[in-house]
Specification:
The structure is a single chain. The protein is mainly alpha-helical. The protein has 2 domains: 48 residues; 220 residues, MetI-like (MetI-like fold, Orthogonal Bundle). Helices cover 82% and strands 0% of the residues. Helix 4 crosses helix 5, helix 7 runs antiparallel to helix 9 and helix 9 runs parallel beside helix 10. The two termini are 19 Å apart. The mean pLDDT is 86. It comes from Methylopila musalis. Belongs to the binding-protein-dependent transport system permease family. Keywords: Cell membrane, Membrane, Transmembrane, Transmembrane helix, Transport. It is found in: Cell membrane.
């Protein structure tokens, strides 16, 4: 469950009603702006579909066979690339954070590559991978990798060295120190990196699908634009938002399981 959904459920009836009313007001304003083709000069709603049109388009998509194909393609790509990025990113972050030699060897090339937007990797990915599927998974991997690496390094470096020294003085092995001291201490930062990486994964995947995909939510959204099915564009955007929200909810559950002391601290406040 997301932070917004949790706060809505835990809020009192008055606050929950106010929040629902706020969303309803936004939908009414959107419908009015679309129906009356409001033109504000810099922004115009002349061609923007209203919520009623978008709802009709969403129902039509749900009844068609295309929805499962697009959802399946996007979910398989994003989770494949993200899972690889999580494994590689956490391993690199732990190595860099715990070893000065690893930091000197691994961190400079990562810092050179990190500022390059994942979108800029798309032409090279197309050349590197024989299939468009592999190139899109790679773009998703690149998008998630650097936030995970950097947050893992930060988490490892913030572990209290006195805890490590105490464990070492008690005869703990390097692996035991990593498992019992470093990983629990760095877990909050790692979870933060995983959450940021999930967001960038979706951003990069949707962009890659718009450019080289044949199926997927990004491809569906771009195809709707080229065919001038404007209501379908908004449906695609909402699907992207819902998928991202669902992914964040899964990560939140996993993060609470990995760091139960943080969850207890939130509940105590």
């Amino acid at each position: 469950m997301t932070v917004a959904a949790t706060s809505l459920l835990t809020a009192g009836p008055a606050r929950a009603g106010l929040r629902v009313a706020s969303v309803a007001a936004c939908l009414l304003l959107w419908q009015a702006a679309s129906a009356y083709r409001v033109d504000l000069g810099l922004v115009t709603f002349s061609n923007v579909p209203g919520p009623v049109e978008v709802a009709d388009a969403a129902i039509g998509l749900a009844r068609s066979s295309k929805l499962l194909s697009h959802l399946g393609a996007s979910l398989s790509r994003v989770f494949s690339g993200y899972a690889a990025a999580a494994l590689v990113g956490i391993a690199l972050g732990l190595a860099i954070g715990r070893s000065r030699v690893a930091g000197d060897v691994l961190l400079p090339p990562l810092e050179v590559l990190r500022p390059i937007p994942a979108v800029a990797w798309i032409p090279l990915a197309v050349l590197m991978f024989p299939s468009s599927e592999g190139s899109m998974i790679f773009i998703t991997f690149i998008g998630a990798l650097f936030p995970i690496v950097l947050n893992t390094v930060h988490g490892v470096e913030t572990v209290d060295p006195r805890l490590v020294a105490s464990a070492r003085s008690l005869g703990a092995s390097r692996f035991a120190i990593l498992r019992e001291v470093v990983l629990p201490g760095a877990a909050p930062s790692i979870v933060t990196g995983l959450a940021i990486g999930m967001g960038t994964s979706w951003f990069c995947l949707i962009t890659a699908e718009m450019i080289s995909g044949q199926f997927g939510i990004g491809y569906y959204t771009w195809e709707s634009y080229t065919l001038q099915n404007y209501a379908d564009i908004v449906v695609g955007m909402l699907l992207i938002g819902l998928l991202g929200m669902g992914s964040s909810a899964l990560l939140r559950v996993a993060g609470d399981a990995l760091t139960p002391w943080r969850r207890r601290g939130r509940l105590a406040r």
